[in-house]
Write a sequence for this structure.
């Protein structure tokens, strides 16, 4: 349990470090993915919050929605996630379809 508690205790230091690191945008390609279905937020999400967050931190960001999936996309849609990651790392992330 100690390790789990330390993760949360580090938040203040993480925030300081993240502020420093975010002064320079990442230059490598970044893939921002999100599940399209979150019942806690009213079911279907129409925008990609991960994409908007990452655009503030990186220069080359692509966003992909994982349909019929929520927070646990690798478990809920492993077929889609594998194809999406394979395409992204092969340099074809724009070819991934919903």
């Amino acid at each position: 349990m100690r390790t789990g508690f330390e993760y949360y205790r580090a938040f203040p230091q993480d925030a300081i470090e993240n502020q420093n690191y975010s002064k320079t945008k990442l230059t490598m390609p970044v893939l921002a993915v999100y599940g399209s279905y979150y019942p806690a937020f009213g079911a279907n999400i129409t925008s990609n919050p991960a994409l908007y967050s990452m655009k503030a931190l990186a220069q080359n960001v692509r966003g992909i929605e994982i349909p019929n999936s929520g927070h646990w996309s690798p478990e809920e849609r492993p077929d889609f996630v594998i194809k999406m990651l394979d395409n992204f790392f092969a340099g074809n992330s724009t070819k991934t379809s919903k």
